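Please review this one:
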Amino acid sequence: MQTKKDFPYEIDENSYHRFEQKYNVLYRRLWDKSLPTYGKIFELNIDNHINSGEDGYSQIDFALVAAGWTVYEKFPFAFSWHREESIDIGYGVDWMKEKYPVRDLKTFTEKTKKAAEFYGASLVGIADVDKRWIYKTGFVRPALTSEADSKERIRKGDASNSILESPINLPEGINKVIVMAIEMDQIAISTAPAQPASAAAAVAYSKMAFAIACLGEFIRNLGYQAIQCGNDTALSIPLAIDAGLGALGRNGLLLTPEYGPRVRICKVFTDMPLIADNLNLIFIKKVENFCKTCYKCADACENDAITKDKDPSFKPVTISNNPSVKKYYVDVEKCFEFWIENSGDCGSCIAACPFSKIKRFSSSSEFWK
């Protein structure tokens, strides 16, 4: 079992506090009037992009992106903390009420990982829950509502700030987290910042929703608790690092040995008995040394949001950074400003990262061929 002191990044324990989700720049745009992007979202420039005739910004490109979000936005069970009621779909429900007796912990852990991969995870790891990474406060989705419905008032700016400040407390007994990484399409990402790259992210989010919904029900069918999460509830990157999936890169993203930063992260918290994975210390050291001299992500960033400092530091750039950890801080305010201008997320730093293993960059036209 790993302890806090095993975490491979320096943390100022005297000043570290659990992060409040409302400071995430995607939420800050709803209440922080000091932001240039206050009240803005992607639709602001879409008509101009479509009418420009620019490759990668046509109506068909934007249609691909919006459709990619379908499962993530519209599937109401994706982010459930518990099963509202047991519905008999033909298999009965009584057998689900008893906890599955785990006799061989190693084999049971391997089967749980196999289930996660079977449901769509490209990578899967398990970590002990570190409460430092649980949001102190955040948005709590109402039960059995879709992402789109649950955040409709927030997106319109009609909700009060208090809706973003619900205390986040995991239920009693939850002590493990299953972290999954979903690969994003390599060719689509290589077109960044054009819209096929945004579509790759959108599809990965829908795959996340599918995977965590299925894995959560798998766990509940065995009689245990499951809390299904995307970006909500807790910080995904440190949990993924704890679970042995990779390391933190200069671009502020999880780098994995298999796909680099070309992944999206989701997780399921549970009280199911599982063996936690070890940190990938060899890869973490490799990334630490590599990022000190590689500036490809910073060079690719159109808004200079990624630092070119040689060494990481404890100095956050914005209140949207999680402070008191020694790392490369990204100016996410500048990043999000480009997203608004681009009418979608970007992905240029992902495509440029050598760990993404993209040997050739493609145009949107080439993606469609």
The chain has a mean pLDDT of 94. The two ends are 49 Å apart (CA to CA). The beta strands are 123-128, 137-138, 166-167, 176-183, 226-229, 247-248, 254-255, 263-270.
